[in-house]
């Protein structure tokens, strides 16, 4: 999550916020690569280069830390959507900016999206996505409804349905790459194969990530 760390925030508070963010960044990687169940606070502390006790100054337990990781990640997605959809642009330009910006975040932060899609169920009804996903869909559906009133979009579809389809297309680009990697690690007749999550994240995207983002955005916008 981005904070205003300017002169209005006292130095001690700036340091506290930056330390908290360092913990969240470390936890995001640990949870994604080990899974919520196997991850330990000791692993997060080691990656963040803090003592385990420091983590307890910010988070009461592993579940609270995981909740904050998910919330922080999804808030960034919402912030991107808000900046794109509230820009002084034509509707098609807003959607193009939204798609490109979200894909850029997804492709450069695969651990965040993987946690939201594959690990967030561990929090059950405390999952922050239960509150945050409706915010994203509402923001999109309002922009779509306004364009429908201007006659610029198909009128028979409900705005929320179109918003859900667009989000599904975005997530699908990430999913397709994850499952391609997983399929490449399925057991074969010659023996067993196991999925190495570290290798998954390290090789999920090609070296030319920007070209992948452009191609994915073109596909979504065409659809």
* Number of continuous helical runs: 10
Alpha carbon gyration radius: 19 Å
DSSP strand content: under 5%
Rounded mean pLDDT score: 88
Q: Percent helix among the residues?
A: 55-70%
- Span from first to last CA? 31 Å
**Globular, elongated, flat, extended or rod-shaped: what is the shape?**
globular
What is the succession of H and E elements? HHHHHHHHHH
Given helix and strand content, the structural type is mainly alpha
State the total count of DSSP E strands. Answer: 0
Describe the largest sheet: none
Describe the structure.
The protein has 223 residues and is mostly helical. It has ten helices and no strands. α4 runs parallel beside α7.
What is this entry, summarized?
With 223 residues, the protein is mostly helical. The protein contains ten helices and no strands.
Topology at a glance:
Layout: H1 11-34, H2 41-48, H3 52-56, H4 62-85, H5 91-108, H6 110-119, H7 129-149, H8 159-183, H9 197-202, H10 209-222
Helix pairs in contact: 1-2, 1-4, 1-6, 4-5, 4-6, 4-7, 5-10, 7-8
List descriptors.
mainly alpha, globular, 10 helices, 223 residues
């Amino acid at each position: 999550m981005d904070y205003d760390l300017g002169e209005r925030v006292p130095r001690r508070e700036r340091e506290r916020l930056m330390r908290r963010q360092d913990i969240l960044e470390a936890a995001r990687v640990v949870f994604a690569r080990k899974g919520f169940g196997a991850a330990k606070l000791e692993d997060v502390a080691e990656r963040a280069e803090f003592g385990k006790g420091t983590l307890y100054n910010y988070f009461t337990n592993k579940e609270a830390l995981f909740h904050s990781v998910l919330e922080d990640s999804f808030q960034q997605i919402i912030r991107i959507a808000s900046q794109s959809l509230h820009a002084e642009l034509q509707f098609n330009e807003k959607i193009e900016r939204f798609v490109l910006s979200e894909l850029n975040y997804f492709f450069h932060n695969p651990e965040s999206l993987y946690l939201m899609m594959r690990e967030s169920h561990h929090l059950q009804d405390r999952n922050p996505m239960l509150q945050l996903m409706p915010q994203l869909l509402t923001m999109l559906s309002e922009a779509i409804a306004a364009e429908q009133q201007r006659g610029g979009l198909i009128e028979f579809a409900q705005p929320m349905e179109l918003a859900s389809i667009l989000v599904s297309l975005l997530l699908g680009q990430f999913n397709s790459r994850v499952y391609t990697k997983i399929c490449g690690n399925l057991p074969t007749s010659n023996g067993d194969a196991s999925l190495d999550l570290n290798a998954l994240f390290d090789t999920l995207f090609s070296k030319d990530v920007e070209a992948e983002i452009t191609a994915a955005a073109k596909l979504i916008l065409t659809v």
